[in-house]
Each structure stands twice: as structure tokens, then as C-alpha cells.
Specification:
The structure holds three protein chains of three kinds.
Chain A: H1 24-31, H2 40-57, H3 59-76, H4 113-149, H5 151-165, H6 169-177, H7 185-212, H8 215-222, H9 227-263, H10 275-283, H11 290-318
Helix pairs in contact in A: 2-11, 3-4, 3-11, 4-5, 4-7, 4-9, 4-11, 5-7, 6-7, 7-9, 8-9, 9-10, 9-11, 10-11
Chain B: E1 6-19, E2 22-35, E3 39-43, H1 50-58, E4 66-75, E5 78-79, H2 85-91, E6 96-99, H3 103-106, H4 113-125, H5 129-142, H6 148-151, H7 161-173, E7 179-183, H8 191-208, E8 211-216, H9 219-225, E9 228-233, E10 236-242, H10 243-248, H11 253-260, H12 300-304, E11 310-313, E12 316-318, H13 323-329
Parallel strand pairs in B: 3-8, 3-9, 6-7, 7-8
Antiparallel strand pairs in B: 1-2, 1-4, 4-5, 9-10, 10-12, 11-12
Chain C: H1 2-30, H2 33-38, H3 45-54, H4 61-73, H5 86-121, H6 126-140, H7 143-157, H8 175-200, H9 204-211, H10 216-253, H11 259-268, H12 272-300
Helix pairs in contact in C: 1-12, 5-6, 5-8, 5-10, 5-11, 5-12, 6-8, 7-8, 8-10, 9-10, 10-11, 10-12, 11-12
The chains are: A mainly alpha, B alpha/beta, C mainly alpha.
Protein name (chain B): ABC transporter ATP-binding protein
Family (chain B): Belongs to the ABC transporter superfamily.
GO molecular function (chain B): ATP binding; ATP hydrolysis activity
């Protein structure tokens, strides 16, 4: 899985870029009338409400949000739509295809593929949500503080992030998780947080450094606003948007990562029900029973897609420049 | 000379921007003309349509969202708007050149200035790269950039603001065009440098007998160099006049307001005049005279009937129902 | 420039030590290499102690690490527990993965940049929308899924390519695995190119280029593409390291005996010298690729050359 997220454009500003563009011509060609704006707090507020308004009009957002809500619901209560037990299998029915009451057919152990696909959502969603929350919290706080305070703290954190970036993520997962015997979601979550936070921290650091340079922050500082107040009231709200976007997209990739690690045999292990494990088991039967592979693979891809599209839609809404 | 007197003749030009938030009518029936050796200043606030008009004339409008929806742009008697794109491209840069406001962002950051200047000769005249580079050095000399021979290999960010704007001028001048459109050429510069760049531009214009359209919002710049002025408001020309007449006796309340808002030494101590209100949104231009909500002279007729351009004197026109009263007031 | 290179090289040292030590720590401290040697049998304590001493495993971890790094600097990557020379394993595995990576990078460059350019120039039109949607779908399908599906379709069902790769792994057999390995990055390259093109096509200097009367193809190639590709080149450069490390899934699907395959075997069998040796080399590749990208960036964008 790719670690740096190029979907998000580089936050490097070339030397001497900013001050010269007074942008009268820009306002002229696009806005026409008076430039909306006013105070900076008004701008931040309208950014969020504008974004929300745009999101509700975006079919991509609405569709992916509905899919995600559905996935979360079945992750919590899989029995709502699947009456069977994912672990009760009948070897006599191994690899049988679709039949009434069992639309997705059976796998090699004779387990009902439909039931396993439904129950598999729980592991994926749990890993995705918990790992993202952990990485966003850890990376957001560390990166934000590094960006705000700068100096040695920043340098140390940047090097530390580099160390984790230097390890290819799947390799790291193989090495780290092969030492763990538990097949539950928590070691996987822990590992993803461990290797995932630097990405978020870079984004958070970059946007805090960017927000710090805004005129209104300088103004607030000149007016005597203290460090904590400055960070919480003026910088954090503006720096949070890019973190949310990257975290949402990362959630999708973390789910894919979990499945990949499970596929390689080091992530989740039976009896945990996981799409990755099922795909791995189905992979050498693809010629005889492709349904065993296609259903869990489809569910996995759809889940990842929903989160990535959600993140994409949120980014479009929060970044009006790209329209 | 057997050249036609008029170089550029813009007739009833309409431009609109079709955006997600509606159609913005940026230019609504603008007409102006420039002759060889003449300087026309187009004056207006941001959003008045002065730059958009220039972009439509040059054929560099961002399209979409911008569309020319009507009118003609006659250059030496030929309508640029109906000309084929390839033909028009050959005119662009060679016969009709443009200088932009912000030279730092308007020059390619990853190409040396020599390459950017030389490109004009390579493309339009088929010159070899080496010859073109030699011409680039001459050009830089011409706009008085010191040590042109060495600096031709430098990148735009390595020059000062004034020097960069000289490079923009050199680029526009490269093929000795008939007409240059300068869009706020000095706005981004320090005041001291502004005068130098403006003088250079005026000097070169005289020397090559070019037509010049000078787009600006700065009345101070206009007075020294322009022959005539067109004042724009909400995508329309509201007043045209020879420069000195306009300064002496404006015939439109908007022009009057602009002149009154210039700080003057002899009025020291008085409060500075400002036109109240804001220009209208181009997606919702008020009926009648677009200036009526801000006009001190507005009557019922201004809210219902759009004033045409009334001929005030030979060579003067004003789009105000009460141009006479305004003129007499001065 | 020279000072910049030196500073970057110095910055690499702590990162190199950190990354390799982290892996070393995971393998040697979290795992038990000697127990792994004996498999399920409980090792005889005396034998185990002897092996530990032979393999330098009785020293404190930091000493082991130093000892190991000192060995590596002299070109001695040690022997795997089954007696194979790790350096020999590398000499067999790295060229294979390198070829695979080259194929993947070529796919990224040719297809990714072309698609990105097309959709960036036609922003908001149907081409753009479908390319964008396609990239999202491609990013969402994990490599091991797309790998098996494509292997089944191209290798088995339509039989246009061989479904597995021979040990020699010539370029023509690596086309399909290379495409599979490239897929996700290819989608990123497409999106990155598109965004970059879309942003730059609104830049003032591009308007200048049009106003100069340049033909469209020259505006696009000399001005638009040249500027827009800077971030793309940077991404592709960093991706070399990521692809070599990430080839593990692709190599497993197509049974390619490259770096990923050896590493996977090493990890499963807890063959510590193999794992640490391979990862160390991968970390070096990754760091060097990043350094080259940084330097390339300065070459491509003169604005940061003297910064």
C-alpha cells in the first residue's frame, strides 16, 4: 500500500510566492461582485457551513455516506441481515454455488459465504475506525505541537516520522505481526497506528505551520493572545480540515491494509471472521469456485471505495480552489 | 500614412461567466477604439470588466466559464472573434501583445527569462535558438536591464519586481506589435519603481508609434500618459472623454466620485470623499442605471431606464440621464 | 547545492539507524531465532546456549546491532540458518524485483501521466469524470484481489500471458505482474498529474504563454507539462522504494522469486539474518531514492535551487 498520500497536494510553498499576488484580477474574473468575507472567524465558519452545504448536494458524498452507515450498522448487528452463524459449516456443501437461501454459495469448509461476508464487516470496520482514530489522535497532536512550537521538538519529531516512513509498511507488518500469536484485531490496530501516525502528523504539522503564518494569527498574537488560546481558538480550527480529509482516506487504505496482512497470514486469524482470510483461502480455488473469492473481494473493495470517495468528496468541499 | 486611423475597434462586446452560482454578466456592450500612437486608459474598480474586456480582445479568456456572447473586435478592420484560431494565434503576441499585472506569477518560474523571450522569435519567426537568444539579450538591453548578457540565463525569481516587469514589457515588445494592452502594469510595484516602468512604457510606445490600452484603477497614472479615458462600471462604459476634459469636467456622477476620492494636498485636513456602497454583483445587476444605488443624483428614471451613452461633446459620451447637470456642476 | 547534499546525507544517518534498529529490535528481541531453529521441539539448553554464543545472540541487543552493522559494512550479511549465504540470496532476488519495479514504473509513467494529462486538460468533462472514478475504484481494490483476478483472466481464462513467472523472470513474463504492482500507484500518478495540470492550467504564466501566441502543443508541452510534472516526478521517485518493498504481495501471487518472496519465506521461518539483511538493503534503497528525488526537485524547480 502506498504510504504518502499524493491525493493531497504538497503543502510546500515555493520561496517568494505569496506576497505579490494581490489577486484583483482573480476576483474580477470569477467573483464579479464584492468579495465575500469580513472577519476571519466568519470565514472559518462559512468554510464549514459552505462545505456542509456542498456535501449534501454531492451525489458521491451522499452515496458513500449511505454505504458507510449501512456497513457500520451491520458491523454492530450483523444478525439484522444474516440469520446464520459464520462459524457453523457443513463440509458436505463445500464449494457449492449459489442456491436458495444461500445466494453467495459455500466456501471450501462448507461455510455460507453470505453470512461470512456480512460478519466480516465487523473486523474491517473495527480495524479501520480504531486505527484511524488512534493514528489521527497521535499524529494530529504530535504534528500539531511540532508545527506550533517548532525548534528541536519539531526536528526530533520529523526525524522520528522519517524512521517510520523508512520501513515499507507491509514488510513492517509482516515482521511485527508474525511475532504476535493473537489473531484478534488489536495487534493489527496497534501496528497500523504505529506506522500510520507519521503521515497524519506531517499533514497536521504542515497545516499548523501554514495557519501560523496567516495575518489574523499574527494579529491575534500582536494583540497578546497567549499560546494555548492561539492554538485552540485560531490555529486548530483551520488546521483540522486537512487532517480530517487525510484521515478519512486513510481509513479506507487501513481497511485494505488489514485485509492484505490477513491475506499474508499475519493479520487477523481464525476464528475471527475477516474478508482478507476468506480471500486468501479462496485464492487457490479461483478456477473451480470463483464466487468464493469474488463476494468477499467485492465487499472489501466496496468498503474501501466508500471511505476513499467520502474523503475525496470532503476534500473537494473543503478546498474550493480546486473547483 | 495609408494605415487606417483606427487600430483596434471594440464594438458592443458582451462577455459572461457561467459559474455554479449563476451567470455573471462581466461585460455588457463595451465599445472603444484605439489608433496608432494613441493611449486609451480604461479605468474602473475590480470587477468592472476592464480586464475581462482585454482578455476577450486578446482571445485568452478562460473558457469555460467565460464566453463572448456578442459584439465584434476589429483589429485593423478584421474581426478577431470570427477569425480561425490558428490565424488569431499568429496575431496574438506578434501584432497584439499584452503586459500583465503580476510579472512574478506571469512569467514561467522554471524557464530562464532568455528562453521565454527567445521563444517569441522561435515561434513567430522560425529563428534558431541561438539567434533568438541573441535577440533576447538585445531586448533586455532595450528595456534597460543591466548586465543583460549575463542575466539572460537567470530565472524570473532572481529579478527584482521592477526588473521583472521590464522583462514583461520586453516580451510584449519583442515583435514590435501594433498594439499593446497593459493590464495594471505597475500596480504590483513600489511607488518609486512605478514611475520608471511607466515612463519606459510611454517612451517605447512613442518610439514604435504603437497603440496602447492601459488598464488601471489608478487615476494618478492615467493623467500623465493617456490621451483618452474610458471609465467602466459593472461591465459597461459609463463615460469616455479626452483625458484633460474628463479631469476638468466629468459628465458622470461615478467619474466625479472617483475624482473626488483622490487625496489632494490643497484639501488637506478635510475628510476624504468615498463613494458609498459597493459595486453590484454581476449575477444581479440592478435594473435601470447600474450605478443608481450608489448615486447621489439618482431619480426614479435611473431606477427604471438604463441610460444610453449620450453624446456630450465631440469625442465625449456619458451614460447618465443627468449628464448635463453633472457637467454643469463642475 | 553541495552543502545541501551533505546536510541531507547527514540527516539520512539517524533515519537509517532508526529504521534498521527498529526492524532489528522486532526480529531479534520480539522473536526468538534459536527457538525457531528447532521448530516444535524444545531445544536442548546446552545446544541452544552454544548456538546463541556462535550467533552472537547472548550479547545485549545494542551490541548485537552494532556487531551486525559492522559486519554489513564489510559486505558480510551473514548466513541464513539453513546455511545459505544471505548475500547470495540477495544477488538472486534483487535483480528480479528490480526488473519487476522497472516494469511497474514504466506503466506508471506511460499510462498514469497520459491519463492524468487527458483528464486534467478536460477538467469537468466526461473523460475527466470517468478517469477520476476509475482511479478511485482502482485504489479501492487491494493488490491481492486485483492480482488474482487479473491472473485468472489473462493467464487462465484468455491465456494471453503465462499465469506464473519462471525463476529467470524475463521482462515479457513480468508484464502482467508489473501492471498489477503498478495499479495503485498508477491511479495516484493519474490523480496527481490531473490535479497538477488543472492547477497549473489556471496559472498566470500559462495565460502569458497563450497571449504570446504560442501554438497549443507548445503551450502544453513546454509550459504546462514541464511545470506540472515536478510533483509527479517526485512521487514516482519515492515510489521506487515503496514498490520494491511492496512487491511482496505481487511476488507471492505470481510466484516470483524476488525480494518479497525471500522475505516472506524468511519471516515465516523466522530466518532472522535474511529478514534483517533484506530489510536493511530495502531501507537503503528507499533512502537513496528519496535523496535523489530531493536533488531532482532542485534541478526541476530552480526556485528552490539556491534556498
Amino acid at each position: 500500500m502506498p504510504e504518502p498520500d499524493p491525493l493531497d497536494k504538497e503543502t510546500i510553498t515555493p520561496a517568494g510566492g505569496g506576497a505579490m499576488t494581490l489577486a484583483t484580477s482573480d476576483a474580477e474574473t470569477l467573483e464579479g461582485g464584492p468579495i465575500p468575507g469580513g472577519t476571519q472567524s466568519g470565514k472559518a465558519r462559512s468554510l464549514w457551513s459552505d462545505a456542509w452545504h456542498d456535501l449534501l448536494r454531492s451525489p458521491v458524498f451522499v452515496l458513500s455516506a449511505l454505504v458507510i452507515v449501512f456497513l457500520v450498522v451491520i458491523a454492530i448487528r450483523p444478525s439484522l441481515i444474516a440469520s446464520g452463524n459464520p462459524l457453523s459449516c457443513d463440509l458436505a456443501k463445500a464449494q457449492e454455488g449459489s442456491q436458495p437461501g444461500h445466494p453467495f454459495g459455500y466456501d471450501t469448509q462448507g461455510c455460507d459465504v453470505y453470512t461470512r461476508v456480512v460478519y466480516g464487516a465487523r473486523a474491517s470496520i473495527t480495524v479501520g475506525v480504531c486505527a484511524t482514530a488512534g493514528a489521527a489522535l497521535l499524529g494530529g497532536v504530535l504534528g500539531g505541537l511540532a508545527g506550533f512550537f517548532g525548534s528541536w521538538w519539531d526536528a526530533l519529531l520529523s526525524r522520528l516520522a522519517d524512521v517510520f516512513f523508512g520501513i515499507p509498511i507491509i514488510l513492517g507488518g509482516l515482521v511485527f505481526l508474525s511475532m504476535v500469536t493473537s489473531g484478534s484485531v488489536w495487534p493489527v490496530v496497534g501496528f497500523i497506528v504505529l506506522l500510520g501516525w507519521p503521515q497524519i502528523s506531517r499533514i497536521a504539522r504542515g497545516s499548523v505551520v501554514g495557519a501560523k503564518q496567516h495575518d489574523y494569527v499574527q494579529a491575534a498574537r500582536a494583540l497578546g493572545a497567549g499560546g494555548t488560546r492561539l492554538l485552540l481558538r485560531h490555529i486548530a480550527p483551520n488546521a483540522v480540515a486537512p487532517v480530517i480529509v487525510v484521515a478519512t482516506i486513510a481509513l479506507g487504505t487501513y481497511i485494505a491494509l488489514e485485509a492484505t496482512l490477513s491475506f499474508l497470514g499475519v493479520g487477523l486469524k481464525p476464528p475471527t471472521v475477516s474478508w482478507g482470510i476468506d480471500i486468501s483461502n479462496a485464492s487457490n480455488q479461483i478456477r473451480n469456485a470463483p464466487h468464493m473469492l469474488l463476494w468477499p473481494a467485492g465487499a472489501l473493495s466496496l468498503t474501501v471505495l466508500a471511505f476513499i470517495m467520502l474523503g475525496d468528496a470532503v476534500r473537494d468541499a473543503l478546498d474550493p480552489k480546486l473547483r | 500614412m495609408e494605415q487606417p486611423a483606427t487600430l483596434l475597434d471594440v464594438r458592443d462586446l458582451h462577455v459572461e461567466f457561467r459559474t455554479r452560482d449563476g451567470v455573471a454578466k462581466a461585460v455588457n456592450g463595451v465599445s472603444y477604439s484605439v489608433a496608432a500612437g494613441e493611449t486609451l486608459a480604461v479605468l474602473g474598480e475590480s470587477g468592472s470588466g476592464k480586464s475581462v474586456t482585454a482578455q476577450a480582445v486578446m482571445g485568452i479568456l478562460d473558457s469555460p466559464p467565460g464566453f463572448v456572447t456578442g459584439g465584434e473586435v476589429l483589429f485593423r478592420g478584421r474581426n478577431l472573434l470570427t477569425m480561425g484560431e490558428e490565424h488569431r494565434r499568429r496575431v496574438r503576441g506578434a501584432k497584439l501583445a499584452m503586459i500583465f499585472q503580476d510579472a512574478l506569477s506571469s512569467l514561467n518560474p522554471v524557464m530562464t527569462v532568455g528562453a521565454q523571450l527567445g521563444e517569441m522569435y522561435e515561434v513567430h519567426q522560425g529563428m534558431t535558438r541561438k539567434d533568438a537568444r541573441a535577440r533576447a539579450v538585445q531586448l533586455m538591453d532595450r528595456v534597460r536591464i543591466p548586465a543583460a548578457k549575463e542575466r539572460v540565463r537567470d530565472y524570473p525569481h532572481q529579478f527584482s519586481g521592477g526588473m521583472r516587469q521590464r522583462i514583461m514589457i520586453a516580451m510584449a515588445l519583442a515583435l514590435e506589435p501594433d498594439l499593446i494592452i497593459a493590464d495594471e502594469p505597475t500596480t504590483a510595484l513600489d511607488v518609486t519603481v512605478q514611475a520608471q516602468v511607466m515612463d519606459l512604457l510611454a517612451e517605447l510606445q512613442r518610439e514604435y508609434n504603437m497603440g496602447l490600452v492601459l488598464i488601471t484603477h489608478d487615476l494618478g497614472v492615467v493623467a500623465d500618459v493617456a490621451d483618452k479615458i474610458a471609465v467602466m462600471y459593472a461591465g459597461r462604459i459609463v463615460e469616455t472623454a479626452p483625458v484633460h476634459e474628463l479631469y476638468k469636467r466629468p459628465a458622470h456622477p461615478y467619474t466625479r466620485g472617483l475624482l473626488d476620492s483622490i487625496p489632494r494636498l490643497d484639501h488637506k485636513g478635510q475628510e476624504l470623499y468615498a463613494i458609498k456602497g459597493l459595486p453590484p454583483s454581476l449575477t444581479a445587476i440592478p435594473p435601470g442605471c447600474p450605478f443608481n444605488p450608489r448615486c447621489p443624483r439618482a431619480q426614479d428614471i435611473c431606477r427604471s431606464d438604463r441610460p444610453p451613452l449620450y453624446a456630450v461633446e465631440p469625442g465625449r459620451a456619458s451614460a447618465c440621464h443627468f449628464w448635463k447637470e453633472t457637467l454643469d456642476e463642475s | 547545492m553541495g552543502r545541501y547534499v551533505i546536510r541531507r546525507l547527514l540527516q539520512m544517518i539517524p533515519v537509517f539507524i532508526g529504521s534498521t534498529f527498529l526492524i532489528f529490535f522486532m526480529v531479534y528481541a520480539l522473536g526468538d531465532p534459536v527457538a525457531a531453529l528447532f521448530g516444535d521441539k524444545a531445544p536442548d539448553p546446552a545446544t541452544a546456549a552454544r548456538i546463541r554464543q556462535e550467533l552472537y545472540l547472548d550479547a545485549p541487543l545494542w551490541k548485537q546491532y552494532l556487531h551486525y552493522m559492522a559486519q554489513i559494512l564489510t559486505g558480510n550479511f551473514g548466513t541464513a540458518f539453513n546455511g545459505q549465504d544471505v548475500l547470495e540470496l540477495m544477488a538472486d532476488a534483487f535483480p528480479v524485483t528490480l526488473r519487476l519495479t522497472i516494469v511497474a514504473i514504466l506503466f506508471e509513467i506511460v499510462i498514469g501521466i497520459t491519463l492524468g494529462l487527458l483528464s486534467g486538460l478536460r477538467r469537468g468533462r466526461s473523460v475527466d469524470t470517468s478517469v477520476l472514478l476509475a482511479t478511485l475504484v482502482v485504489v479501492s481494490i487491494p493488490t491481492f484481489v486485483s492480482g488474482y483476478v487479473l491472473q485468472y483472466l489473462f493467464g487462465v481464462k484468455w491465456a494471453v500471458v503465462s499465469p506464473s513467472v519462471s525463476p529467470a523472470a524475463p521482462f515479457d513474463q513480468l508484464l502482467l505482474p508489473g501492471a498489477v504492482l503498478a495499479l495503485t500507484s498508477l491511479a495516484y500518478v493519474t490523480r496527481l498529474t490531473r490535479t497538477s495540470i488543472a492547477e497549473n492550467s489556471r496559472a498566470d504564466y500559462l495565460r502569458t504563454a497563450v497571449a504570446k501566441g504560442l501554438p497549443r502543443h507548445r503551450v502544453v508541452t513546454r509550459h504546462l507539462l514541464r511545470n506540472s510534472l515536478i510533483p509527479v516526478v517526485t512521487f514516482i521517485g519515492t515510489d521506487i522504494g515503496a514498490l520494491m518493498g511492496g512487491a511482496i504481495v505481487t511476488e507471492r501471487i505470481f510466484n516470483i522469486h524476488g525480494v518479497g518472496y525471500q522475505l516472506y519465506q524468511g519471516i515465516l521461518r523466522q530466518n532472522s539474518p535474511t529478514v534483517v539483511g533484506f530489510v536493511t538493503v530495502l531501507v537503503i534503497v528507499f533512502l537513496v531514492a528519496n535523496l535523489i528525488v530531493d536533488l531532482l526537485y532542485a534541478v526541476l524547480d530552480p526556485r528552490i535551487r539556491y534556498a
